[in-house]
Structure formats: structure tokens, C-alpha cells
Here is the input.
Amino acid sequence: MKKLSLGKYGILLLVLISACKFNGNRVLPILGERSTVTRVVDGKTSIDTIYKTIPAFKYINQYGDSISNKNLDGNIYVADFFFTTCPSICPVMARNMLNVYNTYKSAGDVKILSYTIDPQHDSVPILKKYADKLNVAGNMWWFLQGHKDQTYLLGKSYLVSIAEKNPAGEYIHDGYFILVDKQKRIRGMYMGTKAEEVAKLIEDIKYLKAEYDTPAAK
Here is the structure.
């Protein structure tokens, strides 16, 4: 399986990945497209920035439960895309994601979503078996199955690329872990096959959680 680059998003990420400080903690950038809205209140004009968010979705998890974007309300989460028969980067990604799971499984406001890109094969029982093999239990890490077209389209909102099987019979998808805040905005992207980037993700979740513990939290 091959990894795809971020393409047109690469420059955006390079611009936005700057580190700033807030009360001694690093404040993560907000990635993706944005627009501005001009408002006039009591004769005063202000310009608000509107950030693109992850759109509504509805999937089935490894327990056969229906999971939608509403189940993520009040939660920070990490998303990635995989398939259970992947022979190359997915096993590495799963092992690295376990570090995130084990660090935050008791946090209460952090979740992990792994979307299969091969829903025809990855049935609910297969996803459950896959989760069991990783010793993943409870409702912190969901392995999600849905319509293929919906998943491919949703991937674009997460700023990742997914493609059909290539001529060699391989699925093509990015190996990024995407960090999403409680407002459904993307706050970071990390290569899931690299231990050092996953360690940075684990640290950045701590900084993102700290944002919601301050009076200035958005």
C-alpha cells in the first residue's frame, strides 16, 4: 500500500503549524479552509473567522452500535483510515495508535475513530475481532463501518486522500492521525507510522485539553 501526500494542503499545513504560547502551553493551529463574516452590532463592525469543521456522519462501530458526529460532542478525538486486511502501514499505525489509546483511555473526553475504507469486507464481526486482537475494549476507540462513497468523501474533510484499489490490487490511503477538537475543527496531523510523530500527538492532546480548562477556551 502506498501513502499519498497532502498535496495542495501541504503548504497550508506548513504555514499553520507554527507554535504559539497561551498561559505557558502551546496553542495548536486550526487547519483547513476558513472564511470571514462581517457583523455589525450596536453600530460596531467586527470580523469573525469561520473555520471549516468535520461534517455530520453516521456509521456502525465494532459493537453494532450506530455512531454519529453527535456522539463526539464534548470530546476531543483522533481519526484515521485503515482496513483490516492491510499488510503494510495499517499494522504499524494500529500499534502506534495503541499508545494514544493506553495514554488517554481513562481521560473521559478523548476518543479514537478508525474508519475502514473496505466496508464490503470489514463487517461488524470482523471489526470486533480486529479490536479484540488489539486488546481494545469499551467505548474510547471505535472501529467504524459505513458506505464506501461516504467514507471517501469524509476523508477529504479530514484533509486525507483515499483511493480505490490501484492496478496492483492495493488500496491507497494516507497514514495520518488527525486530531480534532470539541468544535469539530482539525488541530493537527501526524504520520501514524512514525513513533516520534505519534509521541507529539500524545503531547498535543494534553495541550488541547488544557485549552478547555482556561477561561479563554473557545
Observations:
- Confidence is low (pLDDT under 50) at residues 1-23.
- Residues 195-211 form the longest helix (17 residues).
- The longest strand covers residues 34-41.
- The chain has one domain: 9-211.
